[in-house]
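**Polypeptide and fold**
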Amino acid sequence: MPDTPLPKMRSWLFAPGDSEKKMAKAAEGTADIALFDLEDAVATENKAVARQMVHDFLKANPSGRERLWVRINPLDGPYTLDDLAAIMPARPGGIMLPKVYGRQDVELLDHYLSALEVANGIEKGSTPVIVLITETAEAMFHTGSYKGAPRVIALTWGAEDLADSIGASSNRNPDGSYGFTYELARSLCLLGAATAGVPAIETIQGDFRDLEGLKARAEKVRRDGYRGMLAIHPAQVDVINAAFTPTEEEIAEAQAIVDIFAANPGVGAIGYKGGMLDRPYLSRAEQLLKSAGRL
């Protein structure tokens, strides 16, 4: 990828590509990334119309286009090249690739994008990609294979299509929590993203009215290491943004840890507030400050 700044990636709001009203609302809102959907949100008979609508919307909104992304249809179906041929002339901010089987799909997409960038006067390699890496059973075995994969700037996961892929009747336990296989998918996405050196993005919460539940879940996965979350409704965006933004108390604590190590160069472990801090604490503090733009 060229050394160009990427937008924040806390909140990724889906909007159907065949609804100009919903695309406009997503683009005008507070989501870090508006994600125009050509896949699941668009019926087969509307896909051609949706491609043109997304193209026209991107063309009409050149300002801030780096945060206007498109989810294309999967590579194992008949629509991918039609999607890309329609939208790439309008220079989308990035592409979401769903239902992959492994790294080879990302590499194939890279070839397609490179050809279309050159054809449309776009800098080759400049269109970033986020990959949905757990939506097929086969993909689950390759979640750690994206290190150095071309264009990939984030990884995310999905539970609904994974359930379909393995023939499950549900992906939930009786209490509403995800079953083991889907918690495994969440963990493998996090580990895969860490291996690749890119942010992990949490999957959607389907019940967009449960904002308290969304807040608790977003804060929990952030503690686990996730750096953002997909959204299906504008009401979810501000909750997600707040959950993935370090608080002033967290920033102050991280700065204090960085400062105490800076004042004691060469020390591997140091006493702090009645306990001991070692280098992993320093690394986490630096990462938090970096995410807050304070480092």
User: Anything to note?
Assistant: Strands lie at 11-16, 33-37, 68-71, 94-97, 129-132, 152-156, 200-202, 228-231, 269-272, 275-278. The domain at 11-245 is CATH 3.20.20.60 (TIM Barrel). The radius of gyration is 20 Å. The mean pLDDT is 94.
